[in-house]
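Same chain as my last thread, 145 residues:
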Amino acid sequence: MYRKILLAYDGSTFCNVVLQQGAELASLCGAELHLLGIVVTSGVMGIAESVAPGNVWGQEQQNLQQVVESAAQDLQNRGLTVISSLRYGDPAAEIAGYVHDIDADLVVLGHTSKGTLTRWFQGSVGVKLLDHLPCNLLVVTGRKL
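reply #2:
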């Protein structure tokens, strides 16, 4: 069914639900699971980098790399084939680009409720991806079936 599954992962509490569902699906399909962390360099993060003291993106990259590698190691210990990667930029663009690079069959994303103002400024990654993915998109809501 699926050979390569891409899971966008940031280590947040909600993202752990996404991680578990993506891992279960990869296990059932015998698929390779790609964990992709994205250091956001657009929107609010771009502003923060320009006005905050220190290296905001560098710190974000270190934190995210540690979280992604830790999750990948945990899943590998459970017998899954896991590849972890980090990218920089707009999440939707980076996910779409990575999908094309690895020829993924499925993308797994989480859905969080954003306020109207946040959604207006940032948009929805899932909605942006719908027009650019050559594969299926699974949006995990965290709600019980």
